Amino acid sequence: MNRLKISNLLLFMIIPFITCSAREQKDDSLVLINGGTFDMGSPTSEAWRGKDELQHRVTLKSFYMGKFEVTQKEYSLLTGENPSRFKVNNLPVENITWYDAVRYCNMLSKKRNLKPAYTITGKTVTWNRDADGYRLPTEAEWEYACRAGTETPFNTAKSISPDEANYYGTYPYMIETYYFQQKKLETRPGIYREKTVPVGSFAPNRWGLYDMHGNVWEWCWDWYGAYSSGSQNSPEGPASGTLKVNRGGGWNDFAKHIRSAYRSSTPPDNISFNIGFRVVRNAD
Fold first, then answer.
1. What gap in Å lies between CA 213 and CA 192, rounded to an integer?
2. CATH number for position 49
3. Residue 3 within a domain
4. Residue 212 falls within a domain, yes or no?
């Protein structure tokens, strides 16, 4: 074989390798959540619903979401810090502010040669919705992904047991109503672990997402505010506010507070040993 043929053959072999290396690497830690329309909030018939859970129709585009809450190992490898109270690599990171979470998203985007979703100037954070980098879910994306097509209080059904999620297991759903008639409970009181557990310790929901109920609350993009009564397309919450939304409940919450529709909120510069986050990315 002459030198020209050998050179052409080598070039033919190298070009695909270069193309694949330059192309974005597949992230197996994410799940594709296909877009659709759902009823966000809770029906008036749902026990222990909050006044801020007004049910309304929401339509969302497809997006990718982390299978798991961000772990302490992932967070410390990227940031060099681990502020968590319960320090173990495969536990979810906690004790982080909302600002810490958005900074992590930008750092991860830069590490993977993606366009950061956020511009951060002091306490002012703006979101470039066209960026392909990592970001926090909107509150609507979070609830849509948590429900995974269900309309019940939990994505497991009408109740949820301590064998299905990490929460204050001695206070299952409806215990306040049936404390003296516990045979009527769909889930009996169980274990209260009093701390976080490794991510993925329980079965995922129908869409392959773990720990959407319990373990740690998860920061969302949105400022906390009242829902609109009308239908919405890809809502991102109020333009301003003082509290950022947390979803999903934590290891020290009663079952009624880890429902799919339950809303909590916290100042964005506060920390707590039961608040963490998971990441998402645009799919389009």
1. 15
2. 3.90.1580.10
3. no
4. yes
**Phi/psi class of residue 157: alpha, beta or left (left: φ > 0; alpha: ψ in -120 to 50)?**
left
Output phi, psi for 243, to 5 deg.
-125, 140
- pTM across the whole model: 0.91
Give the separation between CA 192 and CA 25, rounded to whole angstroms: 40
SS3 138: coil
Q: Is residue 184 part of a domain?
A: yes
Can you tell me whether residue 76 is helix, strand or coil?
Answer: helix
> What's the gap between Cα 282 and its chain centre?
14
Q: Are 141 and 33 in contact (CB under 8 A)?
A: yes
Number of separate domains in the chain: 1
Residues of the domain holding 167: 28-282
Q: What are the phi and psi torsion angles at 217 (to 5°)?
A: -60, 155
The residue length of the chain stands at: 284
Task: Please check whether residue 14 lies inside any domain of the structure.
Answer: no
Bridge partners of 125, per DSSP, are 120
Q: How far apart are CA 220 and CA 205, in angstroms?
A: 19
Main-chain dihedrals φ then ψ at residue 153, nearest 5 degrees: -60, -30
* 35 exposure class (CB count in 10 Å sphere: 0-12, 13-18, 19+): middle
What does the pLDDT profile of the chain (284 residues) look like in tens digits?
554 444 444 433 443 333 333 334 468 999 999 999 999 999 999 999 999 999 999 999 999 999 999 999 999 999 999 999 999 999 999 999 999 999 999 999 999 999 999 999 999 999 999 999 999 999 999 999 999 999 999 999 999 999 999 999 999 999 999 999 999 999 999 999 999 999 999 999 999 999 999 999 999 999 999 999 999 999 999 999 999 999 999 999 999 999 999 999 999 999 999 999 999 999 97
